[in-house]
Amino acid sequence: MTSPQPRPNVLAIPAYVAGKPPVARPGLTSYKLSSNENPYPPLPGVLEAATEAAASMNRYPDMGSTALYAALGEAMGVPTEDLAAATGSVALIYQLVNAFCDPGDEVVYAWRSFEAYPIAVTAGGATSVQVPVTADGRHDLDAMAAAVTDRTKVVIVCTPNNPTGPAVTQAELDAFIAQVPSHVVVVVDEAYLEFVRMDDAIDGVATYRRHQNVVLTRTFSKAYGLAGFRVGYAVAPAPLAAALRAVSTPFGVSHVAQAAAIASLASQDALFERVSDLVERRADLVARLREVGWDLPDAQGNFVWFPLGDRALDFAAACGEVGISVRPFAGDGVRVSIGESEAFDRVVEVAARFAPST
Q1: 25-70 pLDDT, tens digit each
Q2: Whole-angstrom distance, CA of residue 140 vs CA of residue 208
Q3: What is the pLDDT of residue 14?
Q4: Which of 140, 158, 261, 326 is most exposed, with minimal Cβ within 10 Å?
Q5: What is the rounded distance in angstroms from the CA atom of residue 54 to the CA atom of residue 259?
Q6: What does this protein do (predicted)?
Q7: What is the CA angle 92-94-99, rounded to 5?
């Protein structure tokens, strides 16, 4: 007798490696800089809204996310039929593959990029086409366009790119979209858009309005600090948004999560103050790292990237010894989140020992 066997592609799914918490060190305050989390507590009114919503946990959430869509639509000036909510923006990537890819169809994306992309593509029975980022961690958009074939159904542009940091400009994105066939879905993953500070930054909403094949994916996990509640959303032309909603898990976004997201949208002034502070911390950390010999990729998210290659695990271990958890990618580099500034002295101290010039 044989036991039940999953589909072959399921056995091939790579494991997602989450950022680990720090190991306690005697005499040291530990800091978790491994998961790109927002270090601030909930925005004003958010905890209260979530607590009030939790009082009705015996009831199912609004499966249509009606109030959340209304709040998002008003905030961005988009029709509610152009929205699709999910349990984090990562769930939307799974739904995109499920909605638009048959087994063997291709999904093109940069690499290294978001770790969930190959997982979602493989889980959906599609085929990953990974296009290497440039030496400075940027998308090679010309190479990505050249990688599109008649089997390609989806291309993903992660901007800012997680984990390397650089963002795509509007001119670069426009030129790329012009090279992609109109039947191919172009996903612009904007999980970190609130942290971008650069010339010619992407206007995602304006871009989706100009194209019938562009999908924006966004999240409340990073800038809004709702990582524990799992709320993401897509902005897309109505037929594409409807396809994402059709393959979503019923009642996926909880009532508490919806209430917290709506309250967060009502506190955007406080949000952007916090984001500006994190951007200042990012600039300070980058400047200090340059002083000790690092030439880092452009950091446009809430993290910095150390292209350490084979030394990545050693760097992470050294950070762990001083009570700092970071996110290593074996053979490639290490991502360090912008969190509590009190942790930066130790990060810089470790980085100085690993600087390329030493």
Answers
A1: 888 999 999 999 999 999 989 999 999 999 999 999 999 999 999 9
A2: 21
A3: 87
A4: 140
A5: 9
A6: Aminotransferase that catalyzes the conversion of aromatic amino acids and 2-oxoglutarate into corresponding aromatic oxo acids and L-glutamate.
A7: 90
> d(Cα 146, Cα 131) in Å, to the nearest integer?
10
For 46-62, letters b (16+ CB in 10 Å) and e give beebbeebeeeeeeebe
* Alpha-carbon span 57 to 70, nearest angstrom: 22
In which residue ranges of the chain is pLDDT below 70?
357-358
Q: What is the CATH number of domain 17-36+269-353?
A: 3.90.1150.10
| pLDDT given at position 16 | 85
Work out the burial of residue 30: count CB atoms within 10 Å of its CB; fewer than 13 is exposed, 13-18 middle, 19 or more buried.
middle
| The architecture CATH gives domain 46-266 | 3-Layer(aba) Sandwich (3.40)
Q: Is 230 left (phi over 0), alpha (psi -120 to 50) or beta?
A: left
> In this structure, are residues 100 and 185 in contact, taking their beta carbons and an 8 Å threshold?
yes
* All structural domains of the chain with their residue ranges: 17-36+269-353, 46-266
CA angle 320, 353, 139 (to 5 degrees): 80
CA dihedral 250, 252, 256, 258 (to 10 degrees): -90
pTM exceeds 0.90, yes or no: yes
Is-cis flag, bond preceding 160, omega within 30?
A: yes
Which strands make up the sheet holding 327-329, listed edge to edge? Answer: 303-306, 333-337, 327-329
Q: Which residues contact 149 (CB under 8 A, 6 or more apart)?
A: 106
Q: What is the number of other CB atoms lying within 10 angstroms of the CB of residue 128?
A: 16
